[in-house]
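A further point concerns the way the authors explain their paired sequence and structure data. Showing the layout once, in full, would remove most of the difficulty. For illustration, here is how one protein appears when written out as sequence plus structure tokens:
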Amino acid sequence: MRGQRLAAMPWLALPMWLVWLALLTGCASPATTPSTAAQRADSTAWSGRLALQVEEQVGQAAQSFSAAFELQGNAAQGELTLLSPLGNVLAHIDWSPDHARLQSDETTQTSASLDTLLTQMTGTALPVRALFDWLRGVPATASGWHADLNGIDRGRLEATRHTPTPRATLRMAFEPSP
């Protein structure tokens, strides 16, 4: 059924893990403490490179993807642009509390919420609220994910999803915008 849902989507001209990765950085799911949420009130911007590796699963080959990225905003409102090595826009996602939009090539997909859009497209929730915390060096929990924040001061982040399967690893090398 998931294959049928994905096959019906016109944006499938993109590699599936490009879309998954774009969505990974655009969804809010895990809860944080009120004090952490207050610390995240200001928008921030990052740019750099990211890579996603997803291990082999029964019936599916291992996948990997990398791209340059520009991310700005916070878990509630923001934008993510994924770029090719030549600087071409591969995908652009923007979100606010009342809408989410994915644009790639000449295709646009919208939803009333980012969570709804991501669930429709991937069938799973992704750890964006935690990702914004991690990028700031703030420990946060996300169900099934573990982030190594030891390299944050050097602009490095590695997060691994252990459950649900398949296991996935997200690596980011970035510089905060001034």
Remarks:
- Residues 150 and 162 are 19 Å apart (CA to CA).
- The chain is about 20% helix and 35% strand.
